[in-house]
Amino acid sequence: MSQVLNNLKEAAPWLDDAALRAIAIDPIVIESGALRRVAPYLYDRGFKRVLIAADYNTHAAAGTQLWPRIADAGISVQTTLIKPDAQGDVIADEASLIQLMMDIRQTRAEVVVAVGSGTIHDISRYSAYLSGIPFVSVPTAPSVDGFNSKGAPLIIRGEKKTFAAIAPDAIFADLDVLCEAPTAMAAAGFGDMLGKYTSLFDWTYGAAAAEEPYDKAVAAITAQALRKCVDHAESIGRREPAGIRALTEALIESGLAMLLFGQSHPASGAEHHLSHYWEMEFLRQGRRALLHGAKVGVACAAISAYYRQVTAEQPELLAADPQLEQALAAVPTAEELKRLLATVGGPTTPQELGIDEELLQRSLREAHLIRANRSTLLRAYNEAPATAPTAAVG
Predict the structure, then answer these.
(1) If pLDDT is split at 50, 70 and 90, which confidence band does 386 have?
(2) Degrees (nearest 5) of the Cα angle 116, 53, 193?
(3) Dist. CA 177–CA 31, nearest whole Å
(4) Lowest-confidence range among 127-131, 334-338, 373-377?
(5) CA distance 27 to 11
(6) φ/ψ (deg, to 5) at 154
(7) Exposed e or buried b for every residue in 17-41, given b needs 16+ CB within 10 A?
(8) Three-state helix/strand/coil letters over 241-284
(9) Which residues have a Cβ under 8 Å from the Cβ of 345 and sit 6 or more positions away?
C-alpha cells in the first residue's frame, strides 16, 4: 500500500478496506526520479502505442525526458502538444479536446500519459474517457487537487461545466520536476488546499441545513491533508523537497477523498464557485486565464470574511444546527488565510488577480448559481428573503 493510502487510513482508521480498494490507483509514486518508473510500468502493462499529452512548457519540464525512455522500452510513442488559445492560454475547451481525440484516433493510442498540471489532466482524462482508453498521470507542478479526479471541469461554449470521466490508472509525481515548477504553481496548489477550510464548512452547512449527504471519514481525510499543508507552509514557500512532497501528497489525498465520496463536496464550496465565476468572466472579456488555485486561495479568504459578515447580520442562517457556529469559528480569519498565502508566495487579494470590486461583489451575489444543486451558506444568504447588501470584502 502506498504512503498516500497509509495516510488515508491514519486519518480515518475506521475506513473500510474495501472502500480503499475501490479507489485504488496503483501505483502512486511520489519521489525523486519517478519519471524513470513510467516506461517500465507501461511495458509491464503491455501497452504498445502510447500518446503523451502536454503543452510546450510541460513538455520541456518532463515530456522530453519521458519520451526517449518510453521509446527505449520498445513502445511506440508520440506526443500531442495542446495548442494555446488566442490569449496564449492552454484551456480545457472543445478545441483542445478535439485536437487530442483526433490524435488518439490517428495514432491508435492504447493509453494517454498526461504530462502537465490541471488543465492537461482535464483534457486528457475526458479525451481518454470518450476514446475508451485509460490514462496515466505525470504531474509537472503541485498545482491542483484534480490529478486523480474522475470529474473533468471543461469550458464548453464559454461556460464552465464538470463532466464525469475517469481517474488515472497510475500517478508518477517526480519531486525533481515538481520542485523546479514555478513558484506560482506551487502557491496555486497550496491555495487550492487552503480552500478546503471553507469547502469543509459549506459541506457541514449543506448537511445540516439541506440534509446533503455527509461522510465523516472523507471529511477527516480532507482535514488531515489540509493540516499537513498548513504545517509545511514555510517549506512549501521555499520549495524544499519535504514541503513539495507534503503538498503533493495532500493534493492527491484530497482527490482520493472526492473519489471515496463520489462528489466534490469535501473539496469544493463557495470559494470554488467564486473561482469559476471569475474564470468565466475573464473568458468573456478575452483576458488571460488565472491559475485555478490562485483564485481559490484568494476566494477562500474573501468567503471567510463574507461569511462572518453575513452571519453577524443574520445569525438565523446558522440556526439549523448548534454546531454550525463552532464550525464557522474554526475557519481561519481572512487575515490569517492571507498570511498563509503570502508565506508560499501566492496572491492574497482579488485586486492582485485583477478582479475589481464590481466583479467581486457581483460574484458574491451570483456565484452560487454555478452549482444550483449545491447548498452553501452563500446560496442560503443570497436566496434569503430581503437579503441586504453587505460591506465590501477585499
Answers:
(1) low
(2) 25
(3) 10
(4) 373-377
(5) 20
(6) -125, 155
(7) eeebeebebeebbbeeebbebbbeb
(8) HHHHHHHHHHHHHHHHHHHHHCCCHHHCCHHHHHHHHHHHHHHH
(9) 183, 184, 186, 187, 237
Cis amide leading into 27 (omega within 30): yes
| Measured distance CA(279)–CA(55) in Å, rounded | 20
The total of other beta-carbon atoms located within 10 Å of residue 233's CB is: 20
What is the residue-averaged pLDDT of the chain? 93
Give CA–CA dist 284/242, Å, rounded.
Answer: 40
Within 10 angstroms of residue 315's Cβ, the number of other Cβ atoms is 10
Q: Which of 178, 264, 161 is nearest to 215 (CA)?
A: 264
Count of CB atoms situated within 10 Å of the CB of 389: 8
Give the pairing of strands 28-31 and 171-174: parallel
Q: Which residues face 78 on adjacent strands?
A: 51
What pLDDT is attached to residue 387?
53
Q: Which three cell numbers stand for residue 238?
A: 521555499
DSSP category for residue 61: I
Q: What is the DSSP string of 83-116?
A: PP-TTS----BHHHHHHHHHHHHHHT-SEEEEEE
Cα(46)–Cα(100) distance, rounded to whole angstroms?
A: 22
Q: Is the pLDDT of residue 217 over 80?
A: yes
pLDDT of 169-211, one tens digit each?
Answer: 999 999 999 999 999 999 999 999 999 999 999 999 999 999 9
Per-residue burial over 180-219, b = 16 or more CB atoms within 10 Å of its CB, e = otherwise: ebeebbbbbbbbbbbbbbbbbbbbbbbbbbeebeebebbb
DSSP 318-363: GTT-THHHHHHHTSPPHHHHHHHHHHTT---SGGGGT--HHHHHHH
**Bridge partners (DSSP) listed for residue 111:** 50
The secondary element (H helix, E strand) that includes residue 285 is helix 270-285
Report the interhelical angle of 334-343 vs 183-194 (nearest 10°).
150
The per-residue pLDDT for 11 is: 80
Q: Quick one: what percent of the chain has pLDDT higher than 70?
A: 97
How far apart CA 164 and CA 91 sit, in angstroms, is: 18
Q: What is the DSSP letter of 81?
A: E
C-alpha cell read off for 62:
518532463
